[in-house]
Design goal:
Helix content is 7%, strand content 49%. With 322 residues, it is mostly beta strands.
């Protein structure tokens, strides 16, 4: 009996230790990048490095988190890069508003290749990109366009949005569907990948300012609502919406990202924080950023890490969960 009790106590001790470890607070670390670079978007790479767009200097930056060292690659005269993602080929792909082009940088040779928008497009104010499951890149432009680029053919095609200006964030679901958000239009839209037609989906809150979107593992579309201070989610299978207001007096959710555990992350300009939302418990956790007025405009991650670009203080920030 005594031996049994000791075994039970030992088991409780192990489980208790695991519980404490699982509930331990995440750590936050900032990495300075060259002053005046205004990092806008960030993209962790498979090799452990982190790409970021240096919007004010027209360059693509690369951070080595192990050493803290950075390297910048010039993208071309007039460049003003906004978004960056890592494509299926392992290379960074950039939406460059200054060049009015999609740009690819070879991660080994650092060769820069531009894919200009059609000459009759006009200024698109390029924003964000995503790859569908066929390797085609889709992108948005706040001037009122969205488009696609087939890297195999090198051809760019542009479409006009149904309702004027505003296309901003864009995402691909696990099944390969592509959705974008319109900040000025206050809606999200689903793109038919065959003909390129966009179908508008109106959130329940009027004029909410849908800024960025991200899909979870079930294909639900999470939306950061800049004007309303809410995070909302659209379930395409049920055609239903839910929404929650972020904590604080005047939340301003800019970016949204869903990690590998389907936890939702947002950047809140109002609280100068990254905010973690648990959809199952419907609970928020606010992680105040070390630097004031950090202005995290975009979030991306990899296993155990949530990365943001602090455009207001010329730094990158990471939340480590493991």
């Amino acid at each position: 009996m005594k031996r049994l009790l000791l075994s039970v106590l030992f088991l409780f001790t192990i489980l208790g230790g695991l519980s404490i470890a699982q509930q331990s607070k995440p750590t936050i670390q900032e990495y300075p990048v060259p002053g005046g670079s205004c990092p806008h978007d960030v993209a962790p790479a498979p090799d452990g490095s982190v790409w970021y767009t240096a919007q004010c200097t027209g360059e693509l930056g690369r951070l080595d988190p192990k050493t803290g060292k950075t390297k910048h690659i010039q993208l071309g005269k007039g460049s003003a890069p906004h978004g960056v993602i890592v494509g299926p080929d392992g290379a960074p792909w950039i939406t460059d508003g200054g060049l009015n082009s999609i740009v690819r940088v070879d991660p080994k040779t650092e060769e820069v290749k531009q894919f200009p928008l059609p000459s009759d497009t006009g200024y698109a104010n390029l924003n964000t990109a995503t790859f569908d499951r066929n390797g085609v890149l889709w992108f948005t432009g706040q001037s009122g366009i969205y488009g696609r680029l087939d890297p195999a053919k090198g051809k760019v095609k542009v479409f006009n949005v149904p309702h004027g200006r505003g296309p901003y964030g864009i995402t691909t679901t696990p099944k390969g569907d592509v959705y974008f958000a319109s900040l000025a239009g206050s809606y999200i839209a689903h793109i038919n990948l065959k003909d390129g037609k966009a179908t508008v989906i109106e959130p329940p809150t009027p004029n909410q300012g849908a800024r960025r979107v991200w899909s979870d593992s079930k294909g639900k579309i999470w939306v950061s609502e800049w004007n309303s201070g809410q995070v909302s989610v659209y379930d395409p299978s049920a055609n239903k919406w839910q929404q929650w207001r972020l904590p604080g007096e005047s939340p301003r959710p800019y970016a949204v990202y869903v990690d590998e555990h389907d936890t939702v992350w947002l950047s809140d300009f109002g609280a100068n924080a990254l905010v973690r939302f648990d959809p199952k418990k419907e609970s928020f956790q606010t992680l105040t950023l070390p630097s004031s007025s950090a202005n995290v405009r975009q979030i991306l991650g990899r296993k155990g890490e949530i990365w943001g670009a602090e455009s207001g203080v010329h730094k990158l920030v990471v939340v480590r969960l493991e």
